[in-house]
Amino acid sequence: MPVEHRVDVLLIGGGVASVRCARTLRRRKFAGSILIVGDEAVLPYNRPPLSKELLRGDVGLELIAAEPASWYERQRVDLLTDAPVASLDPDARLATMGDGSTIRFSQCLLATGAEPRRLTIPGAEHALTLRTFADAEAIRRAAASGRRAVVVGGGFIGVEVAASLAALGVEVTVHELAPALWGGVLGTTLSAWAVGVLNESGITVRLGEAVSSLDDVRADLMVTGVGVTPRVALAEAAGLAVDDGVVADAGRRTSAPGIFAAGDVARVDGRRVEHWHAAREGGEAAALAMLGELLPEPRAPWVYSEFAGHLLDVVGWAPTFDDELPLLGGHVVAYLVGRRVEQLAIIDSAVSVDAARTLVAGSPSPADVERLAS
Amino acid sequence: MAVERIPSGFLTGLRAGDVTPGTVQVVEVDGRSLCIGLTEDGEWGAIDNVCTHDGGVLGEGELDDNAVECPRHGGRFDLFTGRVLALPPVRPVRAYETRVEGDDVVVEL
Ligand SMILES: Cc1cc2nc3c(=O)[nH]c(=O)nc-3n(C[C@H](O)[C@H](O)[C@H](O)COP(=O)(O)OP(=O)(O)OC[C@H]3O[C@@H](n4cnc5c(N)ncnc54)[C@H](O)[C@@H]3O)c2cc1C
Ligand code: FES
Question: Domain A118-224 sits in which CATH superfamily?
Fold first, then answer.
């Protein structure tokens, strides 16, 4: 017999966006019922450590859990794991689960995240991707017995995986199609620095070459990190506006009343930022909007990455830029659109990242940025 | 506010009645930057203010139950023991005995 549940707030997707939404609802004293449904088998967790601490060492799930197991009971947040949502009816405010049971809700957050893009070149089926805890364990197992690894894709994930594998003593080659790391979106100055850092860790970096086949690659382990696509199928089938992500406003409201979207799956005010802080802040903003509370001032996007003992923070938004300017002895790179700085890359916290994030939102001049150092 | 040493520790300058339960804040005591918090259950605790991962300011983070969350990358520390509860930090922070005397919040350094 299919079961029918009823909840006040349904959070679809067991990732950081959903958990932060639930956390904020409770911190704001929301007393209604909250249910998180996720299709993974484990407690919601933070993904950033998967390519870092988790690859390098034996780290248990409890150290990366978004909230400890006891939190769900204490905060009266129900959690269904291994539970894919099959369809969503925004007018009836009804979700149908893979097993046919249904969930009626008053408000719902779509936070289904993103999934790794797969390469279609020959041999790609033998390569691993990294999105989940299970993926990280598979890579670590392969690395334990492997001596040579090939990483296809020199983006955030590729660079971090390469560095973590090298730290385990694996000989690593990274292939990036663009002439610079990160697909070229962070320019050549930062890429040149990072290539140097990776080389010092013994990693070979090949830029500007397409990998056309993985069949004849001599490696014990192949990992592809060639970007992600937002998991919009549920939203699309439900008739929500989708355009490279579920279209949402600053309050994460979608085109359907009562349905919100946050995190990697959402395109908020024209930007899809597939990073941890965006998912965290998105879940929090959705909670406030659900409660009809005032939203905080939107802040500039913030991405962080960590590899080979270095921290990199990128704040602001400049998908394309006219110029890149190394500042403060090369520890900060400013990305200029016209004469204004729209994005900053900060190496090893050379300036306060929080202050830089605030500053960059106002399109400062390079001189304004240099003043951050004092 | 000038910090005062008293026999049982240091006055933090905080008045217990002014602090909202479930929050942390930054307090300078005897040249040390501390993250002092009061849980929803009314328990006081203090840890070093600087995250061992990359210097995040713990006193500007969030407190939930006994967990202080670093605003920089979401690492978490136990307000009472300084133990790491969530990555990315791996090294603990120091924790300090904290109590209320009269209406004064006092720490032992
Ligand atoms: C290896 C790795 C390292 C990263 N490192 C960094 C970093 O250093 N810095 C940074 O800023 N960001 C980093 N990120 C990105 C960051 O982790 C993501 O932006 C964040 O996880 C997005 O959270 P989310 O809640 O939107 O989605 P997700 O975390 O993807 O969670 C969505 C969940 O929903 C589930 N789901 C999907 N469809 C359904 C359905 N129909 N029914 C039920 N459940 C469903 C998915 O299985 C998944 O569990 C990293 C990501 C990875 C994979
Ligand atoms: S600085 Fe605290 S978690 Fe990174």
Answer: FAD/NAD(P)-binding domain (3.50.50.60)
| Chain CA centroid to CA A280, Å | 10
User: Is the confidence at residue B2, as pLDDT, over 60?
Assistant: no
Q: Which ipTM score applies to this complex?
A: 0.89
- Among 2.102.10.10, 3.90.1310.10, 3.90.1150.10, 3.40.50.10330, name the CATH number for the domain at B5-107: 2.102.10.10
DSSP designation for A250: T
Do you know the residue count of chain A? 374
| Residue A178, pLDDT score | 97
CA–CA separation, A260 vs A175, rounded Å?
38
Calpha distance A248→A289 (Å, rounded): 12
- Nearest CA to B74 out of A230, A345, A57, A23 is that of A23
Judge contact between A169 and A201, C-beta under 8 A.
no
**How many Å is the maximal CA-CA distance in chain B?**
38
Domain ranges of chain A: 4-115+228-290, 118-224, 309-373
CB within 8 Å of chain B, chain A residues 74-133: 74
Residue of A16, A47, A151 to test ligand 1 pocket, by largest number of atoms within 8 Å of CB = A47
SS3 content of chain B, % helix, strand, coil (to 5): 5, 50, 45
Backbone phi and psi for residue A132, each to the nearest 5 degrees, phi listed first: -115, 170
Structure tokens at A79: 């959690």
User: Could you tell me which CATH class the domain A4-115+228-290 is placed in?
Assistant: alpha beta
Tell which one of A275, A306, A312 to mutate to probe ligand 1, the residue whose CB is within 8 A of the most ligand atoms. Answer: A275
User: Do A48 and B55 count as a contact with CB atoms less than 8 A apart?
Assistant: no
Q: What is the pLDDT of residues B58-97, one digit of tens each?
A: 999 999 999 999 999 999 999 999 999 999 999 999 999 9
pTM (2 d.p.): 0.96
Q: Do A317 and A302 contact (CB within 8 A), yes or no?
A: no
Alpha carbons within 13 A on the beta-carbon side of A283: 31
